[in-house]
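G.,

No rush on this.
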Amino acid sequence: MTIGFVGLGIMGTPMAANLLKAGHAVTGFDLGGERIEHLLARGGTGARSVAEAVADADLVIIMLPDSPQVEEVVPEILEHARPGLLYLDMDYAVDLHYGEGGIDHVKAMEAFGCPARRVELPGDLRDALAWASAESERERLPVLVEVMVEREANAAMGSSLDAIREFEPLPELVAVDWSD
């Protein structure tokens, strides 16, 4: 798989390195040139722009600090993406909700004329992915399926992880048959 990676910081660099170790072709972009050098040293390809990083990608991973940075690069990704592109926003913002001021990826895609759908129940995922494949082929555009488990998730970051004293119980998982 060919992967475009945007954001090669503290979290993005090791993620991209692991993808290279797994045998994927990774083209990365970052504002910091030394971070691209780290990717090159591990066998990846450096890009001079977001457009160059995503042009030939089957999958684009964004690892940026917060929603404003993500919102800045999404238009360029959509403009240069191939039909059928898979897109993962892995931002590590603490505010991970949609609506009421958070980023709504479905509305963002629709604003660019691209089909999008949000899935909130595990049992709906298979149909949504089938819809996305058919829609991408029919429309010849990038298609988004956003999977939301919770509307809001406040997550501790960095050294604050050590201060967590309260844990939520794990939800009961629903068995899903992914075979065809």
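When you get to it, here's the other one too:
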Amino acid sequence: MVLSVIQTQLLIQAHLTRETADLPPTLNGDLKRVLELAPRLLEELMKMALIPRTAQGHGWLRPAIGVVELSQCVIQALQFLDILDFLMLFQCHVIVVLVFHI
């Protein structure tokens, strides 16, 4: 499980920094799978960010904005400096569970 977390993180980072050409051929299939599941992952992250946290039904704005920014970064293969902070909000094991079990 820990290796899956690390591998997924590194594959996402390689995509965001546009360094996928340097990946070994054995990881290309895993990268393709992560990128295929990215829209579903981002959708689930948005659902988590929008869960009402107060009696008034307010969600968390910062994580929701982070999901939107992350989705743009994934689509454009661009690195966003605050993405690492954002990903820490959603613990890496949650991301891996969503990626590999959806």
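The chain has a mean pLDDT of 77. The CA atoms of residues 16 and 78 lie 5 Å apart.

Enjoy the weekend,
O.
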